[in-house]
């Protein structure tokens, strides 16, 4: 391909005695006219190449049928009002509705479809007050993380002209019981604050409705440490206010006080452990992995909050990981993972087991959602072959009824799902889900798409993904590997894939690829890998470490320059997960696997489709630009290397269905073409590199 010209500068840093070349540092400056022109040329090249790929239009048509669907979320009850979201076949964005009583007429509350002519303004968090009279919600330009909080009167639909709060990137409104105000996390928008330092400026504030937000009282000062997160929480009765100081995804400190009190009281200092605390009827419930890698639950009397007085309510289950806890209907609702599949259990407030909720099959379910003193609760369920369904259950009786489901044009009986286990490089047993059309012949010819993430305690569960259906229908296999670094088996599983242990994640992924070829599911030239964000780092490392295992790579909104990642976007908040090049020992680990620094001149890499967003304020798009430049300029590489840039989109991409259709059609057209797979409209693509 005739790529846009990309200059390589003689930029070399010496870090801890190691010379580190960075020839494409100039691509970090997105505001530079030269960089803007380069981005425009790269995006045009990618879109032109993909538009010419046969089958692309057929894919777009199929995704249109799959993505434009009617659906409804589980409702949230506040006072006598019910709040829920709907998607519509003829709308680009989901709409929030409300009704008086469970069976009252539906009324539109928040419709982001009309917030901007081009659809680039999105709805972020939204939280109704406990009496259901008002809702606080965030508007996000370009679907980015930066946001502005607003307040609406539910009955009239009027937006307050006074209650407008900027700096709501991390804000989650926590309403007082009387609905007269809320606590929220606030981040200053002062442009003089370096972007990598901003997280450390987060404070907890209290807003009184009708008052100028500039006068909002700071309830907890900033930490001053950009590697931390600050999060607040208010008990439903308004008696207890909590603040958690998180250092990454592995440990945190928890403080509490009664609203109105001046001083905070330390509940627990996290030393290698994390604590999630909530309150009901003058008792704290603490969910923690302290001394229990798969988590357990304690009850705490706020009058005797010392650690020695904590009472264990739910002990650790050595065979299942506790993923989430909620208090509904006077009981504890416990969400567990067993080999990456969901199990929902009900226990008394003292931890005594009551029952396991009957699920419609093996898959992924949300925990029960409801109120502490209301019997009705809701949960969502899906599997690789079952579109999302919402169920209502009685906590008291255990009765489960289907409340709503999504109708998707597909035949669920046409597909098979299996879970396999394979050994990683060091012998660790790793699970993986495989989805394919029934009748698959294991002769090594099936085009296969392997997906992974492996970080931040995120568990990959067997949930429904409409985007994979055309791939399956064309004879493809979709594989999801449950890599270390995730939370599938608790804290120990996460710890085994973070920091100095990060290479384990890449070894797990390579072992998954080797297993798929060894067991005759596929072969390297028919195997593609896909990941986004931390998963983008995963596929970037896999591509540069083991290029011979793969035929194609789709890399989305990634981290790829691990030497300088902490200087951009929200990078410093991930230092507890990855480490920092400012530390000599951590630099050695990071530099050893940093994909950008390991692009070699003498290697033919798999074909690469890089998918970036132009307003990604979480993971800076400089990673995608620099890596693409390095791969395109690698003299021995003959594979196609394309950079597709989504306009007016944040880290999660654009939130319009039409944009999702275009993005998915481009991705799968690329995969069908490169892997020589059967196209949706028939025929076989010529394998192209």
Automatic annotation (TrEMBL):
One of its GO terms (cellular component) is cytosol. It catalyses: Hydrolysis of Pro-|-Xaa >> Ala-|-Xaa in oligopeptides. One of its GO terms (biological process) is proteolysis. Its EC number is 3.4.21.26. Residues 4-405 form the Peptidase S9A N-terminal domain. PROSITE patterns: PRO_ENDOPEP_SER. One of its GO terms (molecular function) is serine-type endopeptidase activity. Keywords: Hydrolase, Protease, Serine protease. It comes from the Bacteria. Pfam families: Peptidase_S9, Peptidase_S9_N. Residues 463-676 form the Peptidase S9 prolyl oligopeptidase catalytic domain. InterPro entries: AB_hydrolase_fold, Pept_S9_AS, Pept_S9A_N, Peptidase_S9_cat, Peptidase_S9A, Prolyl_oligopep/macrocyclase. PANTHER family: PROLYL ENDOPEPTIDASE. Belongs to the peptidase S9A family. This is prolyl oligopeptidase.
């Amino acid at each position: 391909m005739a790529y846009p010209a990309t200059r390589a500068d003689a930029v070399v840093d010496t870090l801890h005695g190691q010379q580190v070349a960075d020839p494409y540092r100039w691509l970090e400056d997105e505001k530079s006219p030269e960089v803007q022109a380069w981005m425009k040329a790269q995006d045009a090249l990618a879109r032109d190449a993909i538009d010419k790929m046969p089958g692309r239009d057929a894919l777009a048509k199929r995704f249109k049928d799959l993505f434009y669907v009617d659906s409804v979320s589980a409702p949230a009850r506040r006072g006598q009002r019910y709040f829920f979201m709907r998607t519509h076949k003829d709308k680009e964005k989901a709409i929030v509705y409300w009704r008086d009583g469970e069976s009252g007429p539906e009324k539109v509350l928040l419709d982001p479809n009309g917030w901007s002519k081009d659809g680039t303004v999105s709805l972020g968090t939204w939280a109704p007050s406990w009496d259901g009279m008002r809702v606080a919600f965030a508007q996000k330009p370009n679907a980015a993380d930066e946001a502005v909080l607003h307040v609406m009167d539910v009955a009239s639909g009027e937006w307050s002209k006074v209650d407008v709060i900027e700096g709501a990137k991390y804000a989650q409104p926590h309403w007082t019981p009387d609905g007269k105000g809320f606590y929220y996390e606030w981040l200053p928008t002062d442009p003089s604050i370096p972007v990598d330092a901003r997280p450390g400026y987060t404070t907890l504030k209290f807003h009184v409705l009708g008052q100028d937000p500039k006068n909002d009282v700071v309830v907890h000062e900033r930490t001053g440490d950009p590697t931390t997160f600050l999060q607040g929480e208010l008990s439903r009765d308004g008696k207890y206010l909590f603040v958690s100081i998180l250092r990454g995804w592995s440990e945190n400190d928890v403080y509490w006080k009664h609203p109105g009190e001046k001083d905070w009281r330390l509940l627990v200092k996290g030393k290698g452990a994390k604590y999630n605390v909530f309150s009901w009827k003058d008792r704290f419930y603490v969910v923690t992995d302290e001394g229990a890698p798969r988590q357990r639950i304690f009850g705490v009397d706020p009058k005797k909050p010392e650690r020695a007085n904590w009472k264990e309510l739910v002990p650790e289950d050595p065979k299942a990981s506790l993923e989430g806890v909620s208090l509904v209907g006077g009981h504890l609702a416990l969400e567990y993972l067993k080999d990456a599949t969901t199990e929902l259990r009900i226990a008394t407030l003292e931890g005594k087991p009551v029952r396991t909720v009957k699920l419609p099959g093996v898959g992924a379910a949300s925990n029960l959602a409801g109120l502490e003193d209301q019997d009705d609760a809701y949960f969502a369920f899906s599997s690789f072959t079952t579109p999302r369904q919402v169920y209502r259950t009685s906590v008291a009786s255990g009765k489960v009824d289907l409340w709503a489901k999504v109708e998707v044009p597909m035949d669920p009986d046409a597909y098979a799902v299996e879970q396999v286990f394979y050994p990683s490089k060091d012998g660790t047993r790793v699970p993986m889900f495989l989805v394919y059309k029934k009748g698959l012949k294991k002769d090594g010819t099936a085009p296969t798409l392997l997906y992974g993430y492996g970080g931040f305690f995120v568990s990959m569960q067997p949930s429904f993904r409409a985007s994979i259906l055309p791939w399956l229908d064309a004879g493809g296999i979709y594989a999801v590997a449950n890599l270390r670094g995730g939370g599938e088996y608790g804290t120990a599983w996460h710890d085994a894939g973070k920091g100095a242990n990060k290479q384990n994640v890449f070894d797990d992924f390579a072992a998954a690829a080797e297993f798929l070829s060894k067991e005759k599911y596929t072969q390297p030239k028919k195997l593609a890998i896909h990941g986004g964000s931390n998963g983008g780092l995963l596929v970037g490392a896999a591509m540069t470490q083991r290029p011979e295992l793969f035929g194609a790579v789709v890399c989305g909104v990634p981290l790829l320059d691990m030497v300088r990642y902490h200087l951009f976007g929200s990078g410093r908040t991930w230092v507890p997960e990855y480490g920092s090049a400012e530390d000599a020992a951590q630099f050695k680990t990071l530099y050893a696997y940093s994909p950008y620094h390991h692009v070699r001149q003498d290697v033919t890499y798999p074909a690469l489709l890089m998918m970036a967003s132009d307003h990604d304020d979480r993971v800076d798009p400089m990673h995608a630009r620099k890596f693409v430049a390095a791969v395109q300029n690698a003299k021995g590489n003959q594979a196609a290397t394309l950079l597709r840039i989504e306009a007016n989109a944040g880290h999660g991409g654009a939130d319009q269905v039409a944009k999702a259709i275009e993005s998915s059609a481009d991705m799968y057209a690329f995969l069908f073409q490169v892997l020589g797979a059967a196209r949706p409209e028939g025929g076989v693509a010529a394998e192209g590199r």
